[in-house]
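== Polypeptide entry ==
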Amino acid sequence: MKLYKIIPVAAIVLAGLVYGCSKSMDSSYAPASSLSNASVLSSEMTSAALKGGKLPSLAAVNLGVAGNFVILSTSGITDVSASAITGDIGTSPINGAAILVPCAEVTGTIYSVDATGPACEVINPTRLTAAVGDMGTAYTDAAGRSTSLPNAKYLNLGAGTIGASTPSLAPGVYTWNSALDITGNITLKGGPNDVFIFQVNGTLDMASAASIILTGGAQAKNIFWQVTGAVTLGTTSHFEGNILTAPDSYIAMNTGASINGRLLAGTAVTLQSNAVTQPSVTQPPVTKGKK
């Protein structure tokens, strides 16, 4: 056999051996699906880097059917009148009698699993079961996201206390290994498609009159607060984003507090003359090309 015929065959054999060893080593660290995802991500990152573009952006948490609700609770919604609620509300699996919100305060639909709710209720246990299931899935998704880097900016920021002296927060995944106190105004700065995820392993308390301020086009629909403990929004405070609490935790809004977002509670939601508004979607401006 001539030399020029031997070389290609040897090359093929060698390539097969290298691939087999590489595959064997990789599979000992992650399942095939993870390797596939990592491969796709690596390809995207490499492509972006070569083109001088940005790395793949953080994906929003998929709320599923729960995203159709501005308030969703598993054990009831109470209200000290008068509140102004814009969007659909509902409870499940607890019955409609646990929805203590007057029909006149809701610009939207009140969903119940049975006929014991407010007079204007719509009975749809199937929709509510799906929504609560998706709420749980979304909570798990948000809780499982990896903290952004560098840790100095995203892990245990402010040692669990943030407020007026905290620099503007950029998009990403923020993690606190304990409770979080928002003692004053904080600013979230990002574009219309940027995503913010806040993981709080404890309670979340917002001081009276404190506000979350959005700049740069950031949108409440892309902000997610995953909290293992109870959430309390102080008197006349203003909150932005979707709150997801653990299956054993509630959300309480004190007198005059407002939220542009969603209250998706593992247990109860309590209102006291509040404004609760489902996030609107702002489309980014269209850039016209040159003629």
